[in-house]
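Subject: Sanity check before I submit

Could someone independently write out the C-alpha cells for this chain? I want to compare against mine line by line before I put it in a report. The sequence has 450 residues.
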Amino acid sequence: MKRFSALLLLVPVVAAAEESEELLSAAALAADNQCDPAAGGDCSLSALQKRSQKQSVEASEEAHGKLWGSCAQYGCSHSYHSWMGCQCNSACAQYGNCCSDYYSKCAPAAPAPAPAPAPAPTVGDNPPVTSTPGQIYGHPTPGASYPAHAGFTLMLVEEFNSPIDLDSDPIWTWSDGGLTEGQVRFQKQNILFQDGKMKILVSSTPAANPQTCSHAEVADIPDKPLSSGEFRSRHNSFRYGRYEVRMKAPSVKPGNPSVDGNFISTMFVYRDAKYKHWREIDFEITGDGPAAVTTNVLSADNTDRWKSGIQESRQVSAPNTRTDFHTYAFEWLPTSITWYIDGEKVRQKTGGGVPIPDMSGKVMMNMWIFGENYGFGGPQGHNNVYPMESEYDWFRFYTWDGETHYPCAGFGAGCLTSDDQYLSGNNPCDGIPQIGTVYGKDPCTAACHR
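---
Independent answer below. Compare away.
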C-alpha cells in the first residue's frame, strides 16, 4: 500500500505479471548486478536475484524439486553469486541470505560450541508467550456473536462504538508519518470516532505544528500541504491469520459518488521499519473509479526503495466502494495469501515470484493523496473537494490456529524479538524507543507535545 515510489505506482501491475514477465534487457541486468560495498551498496540480495527468482522459480522447481534454492543444488562456494536465489558462502550469515541448508551442507565439520547457560528473557528476545485463546481483545460489543472461520480463532475486535485513546490504548496508536510521494502528513487529530465508526479525514489544512522528524518514517519529512491520519497497531505483533475490515471509500465531491478524483484508502499489514525487512500485504481503494481496488504483496530486505521484483499487485473485481460499506478480508498463511470482498474470493497467491511474507507486522489503516502529478490513486485529483473522509465500521483479527508465536500476550511486547523492535516507534508520544540505526546512522528524534 503505502510505501511505494512514484515509479512503481505509475505502472499498475496486472494479473498476468504473476505468471510471466517480459525478458529484461541486458543493460538492465548488468546494472542490477552491480555491488559496491565501499559505496554503501546492498550486497545481500540484488534486484537481479529477485528477478531471477521470479522468472525461474517454476522451471527450477520442476527440474530440481525441493532442492531449488538450496546448497544441495548450488554447491558450497567462497563468493557471492547474483544468479543464486540464496547464498552458500561464509558471508551469507552477515547479510542474512543463507540458504536454509547452508549450515548442514557447507559447514558440517564446524565444532559444536559448548552449551551456554540459557540467558534470562530480555525485552529484546522474549519467549513466545501468546495471547489467551478464546479471549477477545480490543473493544467488542458485549454479548455479541461473531462469525467463525475454520482454522482461525477470533482474537481482536474493534467496533469503533466509542472513542479510542490513541495515546494510552494498549493495542492502537497513531502515526506521525507522511509518504515521500504523497501530499499529506499524518497526525492524530485526523483520526475521528463518530457515529459508531472510525473516520480518517484528509483536510486542506496542513498538520498542526509538525516536527520535521517522523518516528513512523524514521526520516525527516518536508512540509506537506494536506493533513490526514493513520491508525495503526503499536507493535509488530501480527502475523498469520485472517484480517477483516468493513469500510467505505470517500466521495470526491459530497453527494456525488460518481465523480473520480485522487485518494488511496487502505487496510494493510506492514513491517515497521522497512529498512531491514520490508514486508507488506494490502488492500487499496483508489479514486480513479467507483470499483477501483488493488491487492498487493511486497517482500524485500535491506532496502527502503522499491526495486523490480519486490512487489506483486493485482486489480480485482469489486462493487461500488463509495456508495456503501463492504467487507475486505485477507487470509495470510505460511504458504498462501487469499483476498476476499464481501466473502467472495478475488485473488489467491500460493508461491513463486515475490515470497509470501514470513515476519510479523503492524495493522494499519490510512488515507492519503498522491503528489501533484496524481501518478497513482486517480489522475483527476483536481476534482478533490476537502475535507474528504473514509469510514471504517469495524475491524477483526482472527489468528491462524497454526500460529505459535504471535501475537504476544495482551497484544503487548512480551514475545517480540529484537528484530521485531527495530526502529518500531510510531510517534514521539508512544513511549517506544527507536532501537537501531538507519544504515549505520542514528535515527532522528522528535519531542512529544500533547
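---
OP: Matches mine. For the report I'm noting this point. The helical segments are 6-9, 26-32, 47-64, 71-74, 92-95, 102-105.
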